[in-house]
Design a protein that fits this description.
128 residues, alpha+beta, five-stranded mixed sheet, elongated
């Protein structure tokens, strides 16, 4: 099997994933998954699509992650892994979609408006 690549985004985070057959090693920016995401919750989020298909020990995954915070990065990575798994086997798409792994979360930070301290916050109103 050749290397399959996919892209996942969430907020400002971008994850480029390269999946090949292997032993289940996940490398993010040349660091191990447990080293990059010390939180077990974020590790679980990243592995969700693999757990759903029972493919944890089947593939080696190399990742280039940039932008955003750790939560956005982990969710971008989950989307990228799910997309790569669908490229490998298209029949898995419905199982991953039912869990919500194939949907790109469109929510991002609203822009700051001129004349205001933040996007929606206003300066205190003074009548007198």
């Amino acid at each position: 099997m050749e290397v399959i690549n996919a892209l996942g985004r969430r907020k400002r985070a971008i994850a480029r994933v390269f999946v090949s057959e292997g032993t289940g090693k996940i490398t993010i920016n040349k660091r191990d998954l447990a080293q990059y995401f010390p939180s077990t919750i974020l590790q679980y989020v990243v592995k969700q699509p693999l757990n759903k298909l029972g493919a944890i020990e089947k593939y080696d995954i190399k990742v280039n992650l940039s932008g955003g915070g750790f939560t956005g990065q982990s969710q971008a990575l989950r989307l990228a892994i799910a997309r790569a798994l669908v490229k490998i086997n298209a029949e898995d798409k419905s199982a991953l979609r039912s869990e919500g792994f194939m949907t790109r979360d469109p929510r991002s930070v609203e822009r700051k408006k001129p004349g205001r301290p933040k996007a929606r916050k206003r300066f205190q109103f003074s009548k007198r």
